[in-house]
Amino acid sequence: MATEIPLVFSASRRAMPPKHFADLDSTQRIAAVEALGLPKFRAKQIATHYYEHLQADPQQMTDLPANVRAAVQESLFPTLMEPVTSIACDNGQTQKTLWRLHDGTLLESVLMRYPDRATLCISSQAGCGMACPFCATGQGGLDRNLSTGEIVEQVRHAAATMRDEGGRLSNIVFMGMGEPLANYKRVLSAVRQITSPSPEGFGISQRNVTVSTVGLAPAIRKLAGEDLSVTLAVSLHCPDDELRDTLVPVNNRWSVQEVLDAARLYADTTGRRVSIEYALIRDINDHPWRADMLGKKLHKALGSRVHVNLIPLNPTPGSKWDASPKPVQDEFVARVAAQGVPCTVRDTRGQEIAAACGQLAAEERDASSS
């Protein structure tokens, strides 16, 4: 079993939520139902309801004896999260939901519908301890890790929404609040539940799951050994250590080269192309020479197994950080591509609904304190 990767920035000691069915492995689920006086086959029965039918209310699990449903609810299905608000844009195709957890902690998820797929961006921590100055979540700090159940429940809710619309949730990106690899054990458990076939999981293809990181090199190397084929996305944002030390403070611990070496190990081990995330910030990291440096370093480290995903910055209110002008963006793309590295600009969704990660939670906190 994977061990916890030490946090770079410690979480506060808020209590974790009560145990949920999704927090348990198959052996623990059998033990849990037996503790309720039920035969062990009920564990598989309940799992089928949860992962295949997307049902988390035992009262609706009609093949369970009526006299045990309340006990199953209390023991295995505590309410982990309640929606605070849900707002939509892009003609209803993008939906951002703010959730309140059992301890009042806030987290966000974003469901994006496209003609050929439906993608859910999920959070792995409440807040974030990586302290990147241009990120709304990073400015709020880290509240705590999410439990496996809290991560998985974001997926179940979205999958149920898509099912009710006659569609299907097809893609998951761990690009919401938090640093996924700083909550390694629970994120790994969630990934396995997201991708395992029913009745052990939702059956989403591993190749349609992306795990993002700001560059926790030891955790990237560990992930390479987990026998997964998920996409690794590295939020690099800068090719040189001098600037990256400021933009991505974890760089003071693991340099650009160490991160790229770990990414190469992941690519070599899995055969998967690595995605490099690069938020383009006006007059900060958008210089032509940085585009040249980025392309050269990535080509040397990863060859053909890399793709740059350029992200026009979605500035937060009152921030000094702003998006680069389109001509600058276009030149940056061309210069990276000239080094033999594919580079595209991410489709920006939800700008009018505070879609930059952490904005909605920050607005809710401000409203509650005023």
Automatic annotation (TrEMBL):
Active-site feature positions: 108, 357
GO cellular component term, pick one: cytoplasm
Residues holding S-adenosyl-L-methionine: 178-179, 212, 235-237, 314
Record's keyword annotation contains RNA-binding: no
Cofactor: how and how many bound: Binds 1 [4Fe-4S] cluster. The cluster is coordinated with 3 cysteines and an exchangeable S-adenosyl-L-methionine.
Main location as per UniProt: cytoplasm
Biological-process GO terms, alphabetical: rRNA base methylation; tRNA methylation
Domain Radical SAM core: 114-352
GO molecular function, one term: 4 iron, 4 sulfur cluster binding
Positions bound to [4Fe-4S] cluster: 128, 132, 135
Pfam families the record matches: Radical_SAM (PF04055)
Subcellular location: Cytoplasm
Cofactor: [4Fe-4S] cluster
Highest taxon of source: Bacteria
Keywords, in A-Z order: 4Fe-4S, Cytoplasm, Disulfide bond, Iron, Iron-sulfur, Metal-binding, Methyltransferase, rRNA processing, S-adenosyl-L-methionine, Transferase, tRNA processing
Enzyme Commission no: 2.1.1.192
Catalyzed chemical reaction(s): adenosine(2503) in 23S rRNA + 2 reduced [2Fe-2S]-[ferredoxin] + 2 S-adenosyl-L-methionine = 2-methyladenosine(2503) in 23S rRNA + 5'-deoxyadenosine + L-methionine + 2 oxidized [2Fe-2S]-[ferredoxin] + S-adenosyl-L-homocysteine; adenosine(37) in tRNA + 2 reduced [2Fe-2S]-[ferredoxin] + 2 S-adenosyl-L-methionine = 2-methyladenosine(37) in tRNA + 5'-deoxyadenosine + L-methionine + 2 oxidized [2Fe-2S]-[ferredoxin] + S-adenosyl-L-homocysteine
Matching InterPro entries: Aldolase_TIM, Methyltransferase_A, RNA_MTrfase_RlmN, rRNA_lsu_MTrfase_RlmN/Cfr, rSAM, rSAM_sf
Function noted in UniProt: Specifically methylates position 2 of adenine 2503 in 23S rRNA and position 2 of adenine 37 in tRNAs.
Additional free-text comment from the UniProt record: Reaction proceeds by a ping-pong mechanism involving intermediate methylation of a conserved cysteine residue.
Family according to the record: Belongs to the radical SAM superfamily. RlmN family.
Protein name, entry field: Probable dual-specificity RNA methyltransferase RlmN
UniProt organism field: Corynebacterium choanae
